[in-house]
Amino acid sequence: MGRLILVVLGKQGAGKGTQCKRLAERFQIPHVSTGDMLRAAVKAGTPVGRDVAAVLEAGALVSDDLVNRLVEERFTQPDAAGGALLDGFPRTFAQAEALEAILGEDGVKLCVNLDVPVELVTQRLSARRVCVDCGAIYTDTDPEAISGVCSVCGGQVIQRADDQPEAIRSRLEVYERDTAPLLDFYRERGLLVSVDGSRAPDEVTADIVAVIGERLSR
Ligand code: AMP
Predict the structure, then answer these.
(1) Strand partners for 31
(2) 199 is catalytic
(3) How far is the CA of 102 from the centre of ligand 1 (A)?
(4) Residue ranges per structural domain of the chain
(5) CATH class of 4-116+179-216
(6) Buried (b) or exposed (e) across 140-172, using 16+ Cβ within 10 A?
(7) In this predicted structure, what is the pLDDT of residue 217?
(8) Residue 58: which pLDDT band, with cuts at 50, 70 and 90?
(9) Catalytic site residue 171?
(10) What is the rounded CA–CA span in Å between residue 106 and residue 203?
(11) Is the CB of residue 158 less than 8 Å from the CB of residue 130?
(12) Which three-class secondary structure state does DSSP give residue 185?
């Protein structure tokens, strides 16, 4: 069967991060989020972080070369030997092609599209709060969001700069223009499955787990 490499696609706020965290635990493979990696670089003040900080804040995409290198390097780490859940990568055709080159024969097994209407993702993103340390996700009415303290790690819970209305609008435009065409890329390869992501997280997870089980037993 080889490595379990899953690509999770969907608009910002479709629930990719939430679902990937659960699936990573369930399948014992790492959750590889290029957004988390880039935010960590910004927070740590590395040279890469300094270069990309303004791009992230505006909700634009950083260069294909840079994220391709990050992902290639991530796959050299031992914990990714059994597979990975890719969240937020690939986001462009060039990245999808680079991913095929990085993985070679033992490539992407499935691409899960979390399908959620634009009105609902806009609502979710406006209400989203995150822990700056562990990435735990909350909504604005959760006690952690109100107190500003993460119940998982004690870190600070904030609203991401790119979850402000102007940045949300431009990120969703970028998604439609650059990332939505990847649905066809994976459909043509017979790898695409769409799941209704507008339901409660548990229901969505159950659906994805069933789809993966069905695929892996073929
Ligand atoms: P995310 O957490 O996936 O919404 O990513 C946050 C931000 O990181 C995006 O708005 C981009 O600025 C940047 N980013 C994350 N992944 C990528 C990628 N694959 N290609 C280009 N930019 C990315």
Answers:
(1) 85
(2) no
(3) 19
(4) 4-116+179-216
(5) alpha beta
(6) eeeebbeeeebeeeebebeebebbeeebbeebb
(7) 78
(8) confident
(9) yes
(10) 30
(11) yes
(12) helix
